[in-house]
Amino acid sequence: MADLLSIGLSGLTANKTSLAVTGHNITNVNTPGFSRQDAVQATRNPQFSGAGYIGSGTTLVDIRRSYSEFLSAQVRSSTALSSDVEAYRGQIEQLDSLLAGTTTGITPSLQKLFSSLQTAAEDPANIPARQLVLSEAQGLARRFNTVADRITEQNSFINKQMSAVSDQVNRLATSIASYNDAIAKAAANGQQPNDLLDAREEAVRQLSTFVGVTVVAQDDNSLNLFVGTGQPLVVGNSTSRLEVVPGQGDPLRFEVNLVNGGSSQGITSLITGGELGGLIRYRAETLDPTLNSLGRLALAVSDQVNTQLGQGLDLKGQVGSALFGDFNDPALASLRARAFSTNTGSVQPALNITDTSVLTTSDYRLEYDGTTYTARRLSDGEAMTVIASPLTTPPSSVPASYPATLTFTDKAGRGQGFELALGSEPVAGDKFLLQPTRRGATTINAQLDQPDQLAFAAPLRSAADLQNRGNAVIGQPQITNTLEPMRLSNLKAIDSIELTFDSVNGRLQFTSPLPAGVTITSPAMPAPPAPQVQTIGVTSGQNNQLSYVVEVDDGVMVQSYTISQSFSGRPENGDKFTLGFNSSGVSDNRNALKLVDLQNKQTVGVDPTITSIGTGVSFTDGYGDLVERVGTLTAQSRQDSEATGAILKQATNNRDSLSAVNLDEEAANLIKFEQYYNASAQVIQVARSLFDTLINTFR
């Protein structure tokens, strides 16, 4: 009877626990990260009797947690990937809307500027038309400024979000370390603390939404967590922390450091996954290149327009003034080169733009080891060749005395379109971040406010003598080399230079004497040691292209003008043609037409080493390429979002199929264990009845 009673009591105890476990499952059906538990039973050791071994009941051996590390690891990795993509998508969709919008993009303002130039070119003396050009230039500059400001605000938001996310990472890391300590202590008795394990697993999953982590289990049931390429975040019950600080090279671009005790390590480029990884990836892959590309376009527009205006004359007969501000202003040049906060020297270099057409959209890092400068283009990691030279001499490989300039070329020999001015020698170990185009769109401004100062007229003119007997026509001269600045006194020295046709030799001859200080040469006949009259061969009855060089010395500066013009028809012997300063070019629109042509001229991203075919793109195409690139990345991010969302859902479903609580199943278990409980109680009742019968027998 005692054995039967013991058997019944063991069943009663086991099923009571099973009912408690089932109730625990039901009440935690909505608890995040909870894993279903089961009571595991085993038979007690049987007792031997003459008839064999007789069972002695049941015992509980474990409260088992329905858990798979493989499935949970899939959920963690899928969560990190999905959060990364969602953070990236959330940012790039805003940027795409900004750049591609008909009211917020750059293209409409560009088109309005060149449309106004076309209107003004049709009537170059019309002051209202000229005023419209100034207004549209101001509108274009403001549009560049506004778009750049919006992108800069997005960068500021990313900085703040990185700080907020790092705080969440640190909170969860501390919580996981506490769970590690509690679990290690609780598991010392040989059993698993299931609810603590679930809570820790949920904390790790939540951590994966903020940053990608690698989880390594230890023998004492604790988990070690690593970020990046193996940087420890949680080791046992100790933690490191993430700290978001202003960048060493660019304080407007926050970086992530891993702080452990008194040491700090920069890990920004190593972080992947989670919201933090997505924000960093978006900034590096999209935000920075977009701001640089926009800045390069703004620099190219201001440079090309200003340069072309400087090749013409305004309504007052003066050399044209700049429409946009000087992007090489010392205050702006100093912002493009930043000394690292860790530098021991005090050198603050200035970066000057030398050629906007060959600028890239990359930043650069310059380092100095005490004797040699090394530089690297950050977009592709290519090492640059750095040539140091004194400011007053051409570049050479000889180390420069200071002040000095540094020029940069890539392995193909292409210049990068900028130079660095150093006032003194840096200290060994100093580093500098070079951002040639980063602030181009932020700082562009339209400074010209007088419409009559727009230089729409060409500086030189030609005409055929009215007394000529032939029908030859000479085209208007074009200056094919760019002079900065073009001097008015030199231009005025080119005064009524006469060309006479010599039918015997078939040549145009510059009539002697030439104006004071003027020398004329041509590619076909270089200037001789002693001055003599220059001639240019022409073929009567055909279209000829004249090309010659006029060198002018006004006593202050020598300037050379390479001139190209057409010559056609049939001249007669002695026919005369003149070349001179365009002193009354009020209605001349030749330079205005060249300004209009800039809209489709390939002036952005030119490769100077390729001369056989045209390289580079126009202003409109350059911005179109930027919009297309961002749009493509946006579409890709949406596809990635759908894909990673589906992967996360599948991983979660796989995990839930094993670990989640099924209320129908638990309800069935309640009924089953209730019946088991009642049956065990009935065993006890039978044992009692038998015992009573036995006692009554001996009375």
Labels describing this entry:
alpha+beta; 5-stranded antiparallel β-sheet; single chain; 8-stranded antiparallel β-sheet; 4 domains; 29 strands; 699 residues; 12 helices; elongated
Please specify the SSE layout and strand pairing.
Blueprint: H1 2-27, E1 37-43, E2 47-49, E3 52-54, E4 58-65, H2 69-100, H3 107-122, H4 127-186, H5 194-210, E5 214-217, E6 223-227, E7 231-235, E8 238-239, E9 241-246, E10 254-260, E11 263-266, H6 274-309, H7 330-335, E12 337-339, E13 350-353, E14 364-368, E15 373-377, E16 383-390, E17 404-409, E18 415-422, E19 431-434, H8 440-443, E20 460-464, E21 473-474, E22 478-479, H9 488-493, E23 497-502, E24 507-510, E25 518-521, E26 535-537, E27 544-553, E28 558-568, E29 576-581, H10 590-597, H11 619-659, H12 663-697
Antiparallel strand pairs: 1-4, 2-3, 5-6, 6-7, 7-8, 9-10, 10-11, 12-19, 13-18, 14-15, 14-19, 15-16, 16-17, 17-18, 20-29, 21-28, 22-28, 23-24, 23-29, 24-26, 25-27, 27-28
Helix pairs in contact: 1-12, 2-4, 2-5, 2-6, 2-11, 3-4, 3-10, 4-5, 4-6, 5-6, 6-11
Family: Belongs to the flagella basal body rod proteins family.
Keywords: Bacterial flagellum, Cell projection, Cilium, Flagellum, Secreted
Pfam family, one: Flg_bbr_C
